Automatic annotation (TrEMBL), chain A:
Signal peptide: none annotated. It holds the Pfam family Cyt_bd_oxida_I. It is a multi-pass membrane protein. It is found in: Cell inner membrane; Cell membrane. GO terms for biological process: aerobic electron transport chain. This is Cytochrome bd-I ubiquinol oxidase subunit 1 apoprotein. One of its GO terms (molecular function) is oxidoreductase activity, acting on diphenols and related substances as donors, oxygen as acceptor. Its main location: membrane. It comes from the Bacteria. It comes from Pseudomonas soli. Residues 437-478 are annotated as: Disordered. GO terms for cellular component: cytochrome complex; plasma membrane. The chain crosses the membrane at residues 12-35, 56-77, 97-120, 127-148, 184-208, 220-237, 321-346, 358-378, 407-428.
From TrEMBL, chain B:
One of its GO terms (biological process) is aerobic electron transport chain. It comes from the Bacteria. GO terms for cellular component: cytochrome complex; plasma membrane. Coiled coil: none annotated. The chain crosses the membrane at residues 6-37, 82-99, 119-138, 158-180, 200-217, 229-248, 260-280, 300-319. The gene is cydB. This is Cytochrome bd-I ubiquinol oxidase subunit 2 apoprotein. It is a multi-pass membrane protein. It comes from Pseudomonas soli. InterPro entries: Cyt-d_oxidase_su2 (IPR003317).
Length: 478, 335
């Protein structure tokens, strides 16, 4: 029992540090592509609104990138410190994939990021645009590697086991494992949608304060086109991802649906709400729609979906959690689609920028994408349990042998430190958002960067406002 | 055929750790020198001497961790599990310090002291536990059946505490001589006054480690004192003494660049001495780089990308230092 508690603490600790970390890369991925689009539109149309928006968002991008690097430092060590048996077992596959992810990120930082953040007035417009595109591409390549690693843990192939160790046999099969294409698409799209809602909420905030200008309007408009077009696409990708999971991890789907047993000859219902009870092997207080489960998951009205009781208890993930985390994700996704449709209607009526109920909803939907990403990851990772590498190694066998006290101590420390530090970082990002886009910012000479003597090229120094400024007392640090 | 992948990877990782120690060493040292400098403007200068480069320095630490995971998963799992607490504390120290670096310059004047403290304590904690981890690494790990079987606090011994304190001295001297090189005026004078005592303390530390390790670990004694090794390795301690002599002379004649360069030589020699003591074990006392290696498919696959990207990272590193060469004054604001 004590061992179980330590295992749980190790899982909570890893979940905590990785959940904090993923928020930053998600915004990095989305903003990098957004910036590339903004700059592309600027070059195409010559409309300076795009330039103002580019400069506004590139500062927020820089701070966010910096936070991602600092929180990522911990992740490079957490596999070994918390999951040493897993690391030894699967390190020859997940290790190289992680190395490629890290190398890609550093390659970016070493090259194009500096040009992108500091090179506006120093390199040609075409070259600068190229650098921005490379940064956007690089964030996606980094995503590619880390998701290859995670997907391999979900649906492993291309390996053999020799002396209790995983050995890669075919790297192509390892990387392009069955769940990888779906997971990659789902996560990259999630990053785009989450960023669109973050951008949209910023615009709504300014509009609600009466700061109505072309740049703010453009922000809202672009974000809402994204919501309208990409949120439904994401739902379709999610559906395909779900079918893929049904094929390779049926018990995960059964847990997500809170679906315990099939009655002979009857199609599977869809449980809308309920409270799955792992001990009693049932879902309490459920509201269900007959046959809808079969329709969604098998696209037929007679085939049954595998149920929890088809699997031995020791192989079942915790349905109580994934049932709800999945519904949080899907619910937020539906809300996003709704916001997109509402925006279209308001756009037709010409009140997109002035409807206060709509702007308030958009403001509150600001973190929705990030929450949905976390909920989605909780679903897929907790749904993978009790396995760390699906079907090959149980999480309980992968954990390091640390005491309860030790893990408890470090967990509390991580919680305190992360909230203090990244809380400050997020606060600083919010301050930058609050300032809003300024006209003609690109004409100023941005300090720093490649080719300049004695100026910094670190991402965070690209944003030079004080983080708790009532700027009068701001020091010469600027 | 014929390519010794574990050897190549060991060289890459040893090189990476060396890069990290050399480059992050002096900026951790600056954090630990902060309490000795009260003047706000001087503190700004101290931070500004490393502000443009510190995050690149930590690149090597992340890369080292990931590369160890992929190339030597056994070492990654055993060493990281055994050193759980010191490593976590080191990482927390490093992130504290990293964020302090950025936010100190952006904070209101009356809040700045908070980030000053975060910077000082972050540097101190990170350095101490790095030294503890190093000491524990020398002491070795109990491994049975590819599993670490030692206790939670095996890493806490008089020797590891001593090596933690020793690394604080070493990094502080690095930071001190770095500042002699990068600053001028009263701040430089102050660092100049501190260099000699620091160097003498470091000499004592190195002396104690050089006696302690062979006495406590027969394997290490045999490595150094058996023939013909003794003759081959003799230059290392001799060079250490010569370098110390040069360092003290350089400080005495008020040189600006030589003290830092000679301190780097010292660190390099100490690192080589460590390598001689432990080679070819990646999990002391008995698991070698070949025992702990990932299969060639893994090491080969990683090598392709690493050899492609490493030159870019090295080029970028060189370029950042080149751009920021020369003295830093009160007038330079990097933020």
């Amino acid at each position: 029992m004590f061992g179980l508690e330590a295992l749980e603490l190790a899982r909570i600790q890893f979940a905590f540090t990785v959940s904090f970390h993923i928020l930053f890369p998600a915004i990095t991925i989305g903003l990098a592509s957004y910036l590339a689009v903004l700059e592309g539109l600027l070059l195409k149309t010559g409309d300076n609104t795009y330039r103002d928006l580019y400069h506004f968002w590139s500062k927020i991008f820089a701070v966010n990138f910096g936070m991602g690097v600092v929180s990522g430092l911990v992740m490079a060590y957490q596999f070994g410190t918390n999951w040493s048996q897993f690391s030894d077992f699967a390190g020859s596959i997940t290790g190289p994939l992680l190395t490629y992810e890290v190398l890609t990120a550093f390659f970016l930082e070493a090259g194009f990021l500096g040009v992108m953040l500091f090179g506006w007035n120093r390199v040609g417009r075409g070259l600068h645009f190229f650098a921005t595109c490379m940064v956007a591409l690089g964030t996606l390549v980094s995503t590619f590697w880390i998701l290859a690693s995670n997907s391999w843990m979900q649906t492993p192939q291309g390996y053999e086991i020799v002396n209790g160790q995983v050995i890669p046999v075919d790297w192509f099969a390892v990387i392009f494992n069955p769940s990888f294409p779906y997971r990659l698409m789902h996560m990259a799209t999630a990053a785009f949608v989450a960023t669109a809602f973050f951008v949209g909420a910023s615009a709504a905030w300014h509009l609600l304060r009466g700061r109505d200008n072309p740049a703010v309007r453009k922000m809202l408009s672009m974000a809402m086109w994204m919501a309208l077009v990409v949120a439904p696409i994401q739902a379709v990708i999610g559906d395909f991802h779900g079918l893929n999971t049904l094929k390779h991890q049926p018990v995960k789907i059964a847990a997500i649906e809170g679906h315990w047993e099939n009655k002979p000859g009857e199609p599977t219902p869809l449980i809308l709400f309920g409270i799955p009870d792992m001990q009693a092997e049932t879902t309490r207080f459920k509201i269900e729609i007959p046959a809808l489960g079969s329709l969604i998951l098998t696209h037929s009205l007679d085939k049954q979906v595998p149920a929890m009781k088809d699997f031995p208890p020791e192989d079942r993930p915790n349905s109580t959690i994934v049932f709800w985390s999945f519904r949080v994700m899907v619910g937020l996704g539906m809300l996003m689609i709704f916001v997109g449709l509402w925006s279209l209607w308001l756009r037709k009526r010409g009140t997109l920028y002035s409807s206060r109920p709509f702007l308030y909803l958009t403001l509150w939907m600001g973190p929705s994408g990030l929450i949905a990403i976390l909920a989605g990851w909780f679903t897929t990772e907790i749904g993978r349990q009790p396995w760390v590498v699906y079907g090959l190694m149980r999480t309980a066998d992968g954990v390091s042998n640390h005491s309860y006290a030790q893990l408890g101590f470090t967990l509390v420390m991580f919680v305190v430190v992360y909230f203090a530090l990244f809380g400050t970082g997020l606060g600083y990002m919010m301050r930058l958002v609050r300032k809003g886009p300024k006209t003609g910012e690109g004409d100023e000479h941005t300090p720093g960067g490649p080719g300049q003597k004695r100026t910094p090229a670190r991402p965070l120094s690209a944003a030079d406002e004080g983080h708790e400024a009532d700027s009068s007392s701001l020091s010469k640090g600027n | 055929m014929g390519i010794d992948l574990p050897l190549i990877w060991a060289v890459i990782i040893i090189f990476g750790v060396m890069m990290y120690v050399v480059m992050d060493g002096f900026d951790l040292g600056i954090g630990m020198l902060f309490p000795f400098v009260q003047d706000e403007r001087d503190r700004d200068v101290m931070m500004n001497t490393v502000a443009p480069v510190w995050d690149g320095n930590e690149t090597w630490l992340v890369l080292g961790g990931a590369a160890l995971f992929g190339a030597f998963p056994l070492a990654y799992s055993v060493v990281l599990e055994a050193l759980y607490l010191p490593l976590i504390l080191m990482l927390v120290g490093l992130i504290f310090r990293g964020v302090a670096f950025e936010f100190r310059f952006k904070a209101r004047a009356n809040r700045r002291h908070i980030w000053d403290k975060a910077f000082i304590w972050g540097s101190l904690v990170a350095t101490f536990f790095q030294g503890v981890a190093l000491g524990a690494f020398i002491e070795g790990f109990k491994v049975v059946d590819r599993k670490f079987v030692g206790g939670t606090l095996d890493w806490l011994t008089p020797f590891t505490v001593f090596s933690g304190l020793g690394l604080i001295v070493a990094y502080t001297l690095l930071g001190c001589t770095w500042l002699i090189m990068k600053t001028e005026g009263p701040l430089q004078q102050k660092m100049h006054d501190m260099a000699r005592p620091l160097a003498l303390v470091l000499l004592v530390v190195i002396g104690i480690v050089s006696l302690w390790t062979p006495i406590a670990y027969p394997q290490i004694a045999e490595r150094w004192f058996s023939m013909p090794n003794l003759i081959w390795f003799m230059p290392v301690p001799i060079l250490v003494l010569v370098t110390f002599y040069g360092l003290l002379r350089a400080v005495a004649r008020n040189a600006h660049y030589t003290p830092f360069l000679l301190t780097l030589v010292l660190i390099f020699l100490g690192y080589s001495g460590l390598g001689i003591s432990l080679w070819p074990n990646i999990i002391p006392p008995s698991i070698s780089i070949w025992d702990a290696a990932a299969p060639p498919q893994s090491q080969g696959f990683m090598l392709v990308g690493t050899l492609f990207i490493l030159p870019f990272i090295l080029g970028y590193t060189y370029w950042s230092y080149y751009v920021f060469r020369g003295k830093v004054t009160h007038e330079d604001g990097y933020h």
